[in-house]
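Re: Re: token formats

Sure, here are both.
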Amino acid sequence: MARFSLTKLLQLTQQGKWPYILTLAHALLGTILVYLSPRSNLAFLLLLTSFATLYALKTENRFKLGLGIFMALVVIPILGVRNIFYLEIIFQISVFVALALGLNIVVGFAGLLNLGYVAFYAVGAYLWAFFGSQQYYVLPFAPGTQPPDLPFLLPGDAFYLFMFLAIIVAALTGILLGSPVLRLRGDYLAIVTLGFGEVIRQLANNLDKPLNFTNGPQCITPIKRPTLPQFVVDSFNAVFQPIVGRQVETSTLYNVMFYLLALVIILVIIVVTLRLEDSKIGRAWTAIREDETAAVAMGVPLVSLKLGAFAAGASFAGVMGALMAASRTFVSPESFSFMQSIGVLSMVILGGLGSIPGVILGATTVTILNLQILQGFSLYLSQLRQSDAVIPIINFAWRDLSTQLDPAKYQRLLFGIILIVMMIFRPGGIIPARRRQRDLALDESEEKREG
């Protein structure tokens, strides 16, 4: 009876005006709570999940598009300048969504296991870091010995040109990597790409001699940002200062600008990915993923299409690397470790291989777990350790709790458990691709017939 009632309730939420009412109520409630409590993590999570409600409930596309644009372009920037930490989390989500969408082309569409994907991210970052900083004039100096008054090679507005150059250079790097190794399959390809990712990181770490190209582990800084016109700052304050409640500084609006640039890049990536998925190239990638031998027998040009997948995925990572370098104003080799590649791969698997909405949800989930939930729990436990509170019944003092039990230290363990659970109970991911859903349904029906 309870199950029947729950089913009827779920069906009711998808009928008539209820989807519109529930979607608006969810978005409005999340917005109000974050506005009234800018430091509440629960309110922020409620606001973010309103985008999932907007996607899941059956409403007209015009309604989804209009509300989504309003939330992304108006609500998020206003709430973000009230608490810059939330805007930082959303920017990080945007970066990893773009990286995951790029890797989804390589792994989800073409079925090529790439464990060094973060290398293309590093290529885009170091491209703008070198030309947008003083590094050109630092070439003859050892790290830390350069004069303090060196000029910048290019003005900050050259960044917009380098966003396109990062796409091209990263794509060429993907082709350069793929040309000698894409005849390999499976584990062998994964090992080679892993090695390539480590080669790029080690180059960034050690290419400070004999000429100082990367400044080694001391990182390249400062890096120029594009110009933010003063009239933009004044216009924002003139319109939104009564809502925000204070004068917004230029440094804060830079965070809004980079968030909006990341949003534009994600929209372009989604459009390109959708067009590729429904094209002859996308169907050929699917054929390669399912059975390379059969694909070759049907006349699919295997190597050239694999190179195309690597180039497309690498280009998305390259442009986000350039954006990250300009946003952070520094680039460090530690940002491009092997675990970053594994993290992006786990986002793709968690969301659903080949599924665009699934990958977006997977990247959002993993980033929030990393930056907010686990870090929030660790901060809360740290506060308890500094108090005189005790755990009731067992009478255990919180100050005696070991720091080794901080949740933030067990990120990889948690993600490993999540991936194992997903592979057992939902192998297609949170939102499986349509083709993957049909394959899984077919496998289940065959198992029932055999049983």
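Second one below.
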Amino acid sequence: MKMTLRWYGPGYDSVPIQHIRQIPGVSGVITTLYGKQAGDLWMPAEIRALKEAAGEAGLPVLGIESVNVSDDIKAALPKRDEHIDHYIRTLEALGQEGIGMVCYNFMPVFDWTRSDLAKIRPDGSSVLSYDQEIIDGIDPEGIFAAMEKRSGGFTLPGWEPERLRRISALFAVYREIDEAKLFDNHRYFIRALLPTLRKYDIKMAVHPDDPAWPVFGLPRIMTGAENLQRALRQADDPHNGVTLCTGSLGSDPANDIPAIIRQLGDRIHFAHVRNLAHHAPGKFDEAAHLSADGSMDMYAIMKALYDIGYRGAVRPDHGRMIWGETAMPGYGLYDRALGAAYLSGLWEAIGKSGGKQ
């Protein structure tokens, strides 16, 4: 297992990469060209500069999160093949730089959704929170403005302003897209990538939908074990895999995360590990990584990853905002550093207590 932290790159992240280097056990970063829009072509020089910036701090790039998939690809719009060509050429450039894992999602219009980006907890920390009743009361075309208002001035991943200009048109497009069509479009996309993935030994890792159910009437397909396995069957190749995100899958308490880990096995190419506190159906807060702070058994999750012989990148996911830090919601330094240390401690304890490896 390789412990990592997500880093948004020079000029975008409020956390200096030199501080990430100081977290015990962190051996690399997961990063991206944050200024690129979905469908853009990533240039080799840009990738090399990003890799060198991380390398100067002593941290290799262990994966990309994300090379975003455009809605033209997700909804089979006229620019689909052009954008797939850009994606393939981007993968070639990543492969030539020795970067062998790419996380992506297939969520229509926008990525993760929250009703509050800074819900204050009794201890004074703040967390991301979801309440379906609040979401149901928001005009979907106003969700970008609502998120921006709560973002603390930071541009949020998956909520870039460029999408706002197209939101009305995109909602109209997706009225014609159901789950079956979205799966068909995913199959078209992932199969087109396979020759390049094989040539450069790049592992694609689809991220589960967050939350794991339809939002604003938009289809969601990466919601649990059955649908993730279906996505894997659409291109039954070891390079087509999954990002095991405990927070996204855990938004639905019916998802048994340790069981899903054991079912997916070596098709898990990346792992996001975080905790949630469930309050009612469709209502949860994000929590500290410590099991006792939320509703999820983090020991059982890490034990399942250990038992399948997982050797890929893991990162602590969204953290609380603590100790007066100001940062992109979910992506401050302090609580994610605590999470990295806690998860590394669990991993060490599992190994020393007779784990299978």
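The mean pLDDT is 92. The longest helix spans residues 179-200.
- S.
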